[in-house]
Amino acid sequence: MNSQPTGNLSEIFASEQGEGTYCGDRHLFVRFAGCNIRCSYCDTPESLVRVPRYTIDYPDGQHEELSNPLTASDLTVIVMRFLREDPSIKMVSLTGGEPMVQARFIAAWLAAAALPVGVMLETAATLTRGLEELLPHLSTVSADVKLPSNSGESPFWELHGEFLSLCAAYDGPDVYVKMPVDDATSDLEVQRAARMVADLLPDARLYVQPITDPADGSWRLGAARMGALLALAAGECGNTAFRPQIHKLLGVR
Ligand code: SF4
Fold it and tell me: Which domain holds residue 241?
């Protein structure tokens, strides 16, 4: 009987990282299926629930569709093939969906795999179960703060605070925070989120990120409002920068 932990994926592919600190670097994206929340601007609706099959687009053009779940050793074989065939890949990005839903599988996989490149966790930072087991295996954490005035979700202040505090307590991965904003975003929420990042993770960069409309690719944010929100955030967190989703501008995945 196979007692290995198993994971549920949506897709695996290599592309340019379009967000945050490593924008423009080539990453291998391992997209996990299943998410615990439902943001109004979600651009990966196909990864919100666990799915029976996942796809792989290898660097040589081969496209595969395989059945979920997969084992840690299956995933290592796939990832190592990408790293062999595409030496420009600088990092493995664990994305979703919400990878933290499968944190225990991911921690077990990374502990066994000992990958030769860094590993980034891209997360909405609302789940902490399994985070302490995962942090030692990560080089980078890309954490979102979800603001209720634009996400359509309930406030996550306590959960975000708990997540960022655990990252701060573990002196390991580089952590940065992205804050999606649009024209309707509340000033007070922007200030509160920026203050939280400055208080809990004084070395972390905060990126104010315009929300891209999933329907037509346009920004849900005008230039004047962008400047105002950036100034509000920078007033609370000195390490704030504007950073749009570059992959949407480039038209890459
Ligand atoms: S956390 Fe990410 S995957 Fe989940 S609903 Fe929000 S944008 Fe979509």
Answer: 6-250
The β-bridge relationship of strands 205-210 and 53-57 is unpaired
Structural domains in the chain (count)? 1
* Residue 18 maps to a domain: yes
Atom of ligand 1 nearest to the CA of 151: 6
For ligand 1, which residues put their CB under 6 angstroms from it?
Answer: 35, 37-39, 42, 44, 47, 96-98, 124
Residue 58 in tokens: 């290898």
CA dist 113 and 71 (Å) reads 12
Sign, CA torsion 129/131/134/136: negative
What distance in angstroms lies between residue 36's CA and the mean position of ligand 1's atoms?
Answer: 8
What single DSSP character describes residue 154? P
CA 140 – ligand 1 centroid, Å: 19
pLDDT, tens digit (0-9, with 9 covering 90-100), for 101-136? 999 999 999 999 999 999 999 999 999 999 999 999
Phi, psi (degrees; rounded to nearest 5) at 143: -110, 130
Residue 1 lies in a domain: no
Distance 43 CA to ligand 1 centre (A): 8
The candidate with the shortest Cα–Cα distance to 98, out of 155, 142, 152, is 142
Beta strand 63-67 with 70-71: parallel, antiparallel or unpaired? Answer: unpaired
**CATH for 177:** 3.20.20.70
Residue 64 in any domain: the answer is yes
Residue nearest atom 2 of ligand 1, based on CA coordinates: 97
Q: Give 206-247 pLDDT, tens digit per residue.
A: 999 999 988 888 888 899 999 999 999 999 999 999 999 888
Q: Are 188 and 78 in contact (CB under 8 A)?
A: no
Q: Is there a domain that residue 241 lies in?
A: yes
